[in-house]
Amino acid sequence: MAKIHLLLLKTSEQSLVIRGFMFNDSKNQLVIKENKINFTKYYKIVSSRTMILKGFDELNTFLSKSRNIVIVGHRNPDGDAMGSTLGLKHYFSKKGHSTTVVVPNEYPDFLHWLPGSESTYRFDWQNTQSQKAIKNSDIIFLLDFNALHRVGHDMQKTLENYSNEFAMIDHHQQPDNVKYMYSDVEICSTCQMVYQFIEMNNDLDLIDEDIATCLYTGIMTDTGSFRFRSTTSKTHRIIADLIDRGAQNDKIHNNVYDANSYGRLLLLGQALSNLQIFPEYKTAFITLTEAEKKKFDFQKGDTEGVVNYALSLKEIVFAAIFIEDVEQNIIKISFRSKGKFSVNQFARNHFNGGGHDNAAGGRFEGSIEEIIETFKALLPKYKNELNSSYEA
């Protein structure tokens, strides 16, 4: 069965017009500039109409020799950032490359068990080692973020002065222009994209337990344990294959979700007690102040997923959490939505942020009280969109 990787496509009732390339199971590569095919004959399409694939053949030629590769994730790395960077690191290592993962700052304790985590450099804490690795690299892979500012100011300056090329693998909207790019906003996670990147290279047989574990973790966390709308049948087939290749789903779930500290559960209770609901706008939000975080011994990752509790309320389609961050002197924001209401656009329009249609982030310079008033003042403008977002 042929597997088709699409770059651009138009659809009609009986055919697809495609630009891109095709890999055949016989391992012969067929490159096609434009062709019409009957979609009933070739049905295993692994990408979408939103896919951007740039410089793929040139990148593969470049990687045909052993290279020094640095793989970078975004600031405040989550499960998808750590899973994708470490999964790609293990893959490139098996291909004979020298690979180093560099992340801007600390990541949650419940991700430190991931295979390869112990060799990861933190740019803020291991700056000398990080700078040396970047300087000596032949190429930098940017994973799970779409723009250099997502790594934070200090690391951004270092990357902007980098003299070699970048390759980006990411699923967020409006990516920066880099020489090599694999972008698709319809894919649920960057870890799924790394799997498909490996698949494009006919290297699925290289996926071992370590790679499978890393990629499973990122897909699981970025899909809310496979419940978000972006979770497709393709995602489930990939998850099944990762389990077959060694990912222990029960162990991974326990390591991520069943490793709460006593303080984190008390902090969750505080957050839920701060919950406010606006039924006329089908909206809810949660606040956490710096004092509340300190009271319950806040650790990196303790607020991960808390916003989803607000979204879980019946009749709520738009949720937010506002977290005071004294270190950065901002209010950190996470937005979630159900249905058609785009929190990506909302965050871009009002809170210097962005992300996905149903999950996005932002920031606000001011106090908790000020952001609450700003947010509440915006809701009437979106009343019609919010009330029609999740119609049956």
Notes on the protein architecture:
The chain is of the alpha/beta class. The protein is built from 14 helices and 16 strands. It has three domains: 3-45, no CATH class; 56-256, inorganic pyrophosphatase (n-terminal core) (Alpha-Beta Complex), CATH 3.90.1640.10; 262-387, Diaminopimelate Epimerase, Chain A, domain 1, CATH 3.10.310.30. The strands form three sheets. It has a seven-stranded mixed sheet with strand order 4-10-9-8-5-6-7, with helices on both faces. Strand 8 (139-143), helix 4 and strand 9 (165-170) form a beta-alpha-beta unit. Helix 6 (209-222) runs antiparallel to helix 7 (233-244) and helix 6 (209-222) crosses helix 8 (249-257). It is globular. The two termini are 37 Å apart.
Nearest-integer average pLDDT: 88
Helical content stands at 25-40%
CATH superfamily membership of the largest domain: inorganic pyrophosphatase (n-terminal core)
What's the arrangement of strands in the largest beta sheet?
4-10-9-8-5-6-7
The separation of the N and C termini measures 37 Å
Break the fold down into its secondary structure elements and pairings.
Elements: E1 3-11, E2 15-23, E3 29-38, E4 52-54, H1 56-62, E5 68-72, H2 79-94, E6 98-103, E7 121-122, H3 127-135, E8 139-143, H4 153-160, E9 165-170, E10 180-183, H5 190-200, H6 209-222, H7 233-244, H8 249-257, H9 262-273, E11 276-278, E12 283-288, H10 290-295, H11 307-311, E13 318-325, E14 330-337, H12 343-350, E15 354-355, E16 359-364, H13 368-378, H14 383-387
Parallel strand pairs: 5-6, 5-8, 6-7, 8-9, 9-10, 12-13
Antiparallel strand pairs: 1-2, 2-3, 4-10, 11-12, 13-14, 14-16, 15-16
Helix pairs in contact: 2-5, 2-6, 5-6, 6-7, 6-8
